[in-house]
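Quick one:
INPUT:
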């Protein structure tokens, strides 16, 4: 079931993309529909993770597909928000650099061990989803000012947790190499 939800999230990415491109983020009803599709897709991330942990259904497919589905959804949303001048490109670039960089880093150290999602990483995800949803929803003035604050918080937490993951990956790699030296004959 968890993997099915991951696939649903992947399928919803082009649906979300199509809705945004066809509406160009104009019109209240289309923005509400776009936001709801994004929120439903985002919710599948939380539900599939809960199911996988609750019933010990963690699979190799899920370990690879889940983060890719997450990055595809949030990355598509961030790029589209920047394309339609709702979000500065530097914010999108910084977040995407961190997201894809940490995903690559996880694959780089996978032979030494797994870097689990931290609480900070989970907070980062919640903040990103909340900020993106705020930008997508037709929020009236003066409440629209909340969006940049949410995105600012998401960006700061994204960078800080990115640095934390790099430190964890280097530590994991160092410890694994040390253990391998100690386990080798004459080590």
């Amino acid at each position: 079931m968890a993997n099915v939800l991951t696939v649903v999230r992947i399928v919803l990415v082009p649906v979300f993309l199509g809705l945004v491109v066809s509406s160009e983020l104009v019109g209240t009803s289309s923005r509400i529909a776009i936001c709801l599709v994004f929120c439903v897709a985002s919710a599948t991330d939380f539900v599939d993770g809960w199911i996988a942990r609750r019933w010990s259904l963690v699979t190799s497919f899920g370990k690879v597909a889940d983060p890719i589905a997450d990055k595809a959804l949030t990355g598509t949303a961030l790029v589209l928000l920047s394309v339609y001048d709702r979000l500065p490109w530097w914010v999108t670039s910084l977040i995407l650099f961190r997201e894809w960089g940490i995903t690559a880093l996880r694959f780089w150290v996978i032979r030494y061990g797994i870097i689990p999602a931290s609480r900070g990483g989970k907070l980062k995800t919640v903040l990103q989803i909340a900020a993106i949803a705020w930008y997508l929803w037709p929020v009236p003035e003066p409440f629209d000012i909340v969006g940049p604050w949410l995105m600012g918080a998401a960006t700061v937490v994204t960078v800080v947790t990115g640095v934390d993951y790099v430190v964890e990956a280097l530590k994991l790699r160092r410890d694994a190499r040390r253990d391998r030296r100690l386990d080798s004959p004459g080590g």
